[in-house]
Write a structure and sequence with these properties.
18 helices; two-stranded antiparallel ribbon; about 0% strand; mainly alpha; 2 domains
Length: about 425
């Protein structure tokens, strides 16, 4: 009866969501004002609640009746519920400090592998994403059609990553749920919200302004790590985080024309960028806490997060029919396949980096990726970099070098375990 009640709640929320989206699309007042993004955000949250609210009701019911204490989980239903919710009273403790110490050479080689893989995967992903969203595809009848549904691309990317991770886990016969599945729903929700805010912010701010906000993400990630996992950072980590942020600000202002950088940031754009920073910082920090608490691998994280992301995205956009006509275009289909594969590889490397080096190191790598990609753009297209921009690049790489040096020196000073 509880499951039936959850299903009824899901249908009611879905019906209410369709009524709200129809009212929004028919109202010219709501869709034309500057703060229309706020109503779209509320609509998305209602769509996400189609999946999240029934799960929450079932979770609270199991917690109230002490289901896992009274009944054994030998039955099929018990095993499924235990895999989804585990112990309802369990909370994430402080991040585990018992990481295996390895040689600096091996650690450096793995860090270089993660950095190079992320660079290559997201370079291909970014080029194909721009191509798909800006290029006109010539159909068989001679007409041209442009793809514009970015949410469909997000859904396809995450569905591909889910299939790849699920197939790999099944082939390796690894446990599919090393942690309660509901633990992954938090970071999946913030991951979807941060992606939506990233796309929506471009309607109100320039692209350089958005990249500039991403380059200062190291400090919010550290603050979120202290809040979620109670991580303790050394003084040199705070200093290098500030230096990296300052260096990226100098570099961004010195690698674009003044008109693009000085474009006014509207209140809506600032709100969306702030929400993006909070959600994205929470995503990586929560994933790091899950990695530290459970015996969870990158494939498990990739599979679980993308399963929830697919469910949330599909629930929030169920009323939109996907552009199936373009899927018959061979060039578009090939672009979508390569885009999805590069996205899946990039996500796998993201989770591997977070699991091995933590959320802060991953954020620094992605910050360096932005700097390298802009330098590559300047080299290919002949954009000028001012003296301040060059100083910013030197400051960023000096901060990263200082961070590595201080980390190795601090590790050598610590006494070896008995």
């Amino acid at each position: 009866m509880v499951v039936l009640m959850c299903f009824v709640v899901m249908l009611l929320i879905s019906h209410m969501y369709h009524l709200l989206i129809d009212a929004y699309e028919q109202s010219a007042t709501l869709s034309d004002i500057e703060y229309s993004w706020f109503f779209r955000l509320l609509l998305n949250l209602v769509g996400y609640s189609t999946v999240l609210l029934p799960m929450f009701l079932l979770y609270k019911y199991l917690e109230k009746i002490n289901y896992f204490d009274k009944l054994s989980n030998t039955s099929y239903t018990g095993r499924v519920l235990f895999a989804c919710f585990g112990d309802p009273g369990e909370r994430l403790p402080e991040a585990s400090k018992a990481r295996k110490e390895e040689g600096s050479a091996r650690e450096g080689a793995e860090l270089a592998f993660c950095f190079t893989g992320l660079m290559a995967a997201y370079l291909v992903w970014g080029l194909l994403q721009e191509k798909i969203m800006t290029q006109n595809y010539v159909m068989s009848d001679g007409s041209t059609q442009r793809f514009s549904d970015s949410q469909f691309l997000v859904f396809v990317n995450r569905l591909t990553a889910l299939c790849v991770a699920g197939a790999r886990l099944l082939c390796s016969r690894a446990p599919l749920a090393p942690a309660p599945l509901y633990k992954f729903s938090y970071c999946a929700l913030t991951n979807v919200l941060s992606a939506w805010c990233q796309y929506e912010a471009l309607k109100y701010v320039s692209f350089p302004t958005q990249v500039l906000s991403k380059s200062c993400k190291v400090i919010p990630v550290m603050l979120m790590g202290k809040l979620i996992s109670r991580n303790k950072y050394e003084l040199y980590e705070y200093v290098t985080a500030v230096l990296i942020s300052v260096g990226m600000v100098l570099f961004m202002f010195g690698s674009h024309d003044d008109q693009a950088v000085s474009s006014a940031v509207t209140l809506s754009g600032a709100a969306l960028l702030s929400l993006y920073m909070v959600c994205d910082s929470f995503t990586s920090s929560w994933q790091g806490a899950v990695f530290a608490r459970y015996q969870c691998g990158a494939l498990h994280m990739l599979c679980a997060v993308n399963a929830f992301s697919c469910a949330l995205t599909a629930a929030a956009h169920a009323h939109h029919a996907p552009p199936l006509s373009l899927l018959h275009h061979p060039v578009f289909a090939a672009d979508c396949i390569v885009l999805s594969v590069s996205s899946a590889v990039g996500q796998l490397l993201i989770y591997r980096t977070i699991a091995r080096f933590g959320a802060v190191v991953f954020t620094i790598i992605m910050t360096l990726r932005q700097a390298v990609s802009i330098l590559l753009s300047c080299a290919v297209y002949g954009h000028a970099v001012s003296a301040g921009g060059a100083l910013g690049v030197l400051l960023v790489f000096a901060a990263v070098s200082l961070r590595i040096y201080c980390r190795q020196r601090l590790r050598r000073r610590r006494p070896a375990p008995a």
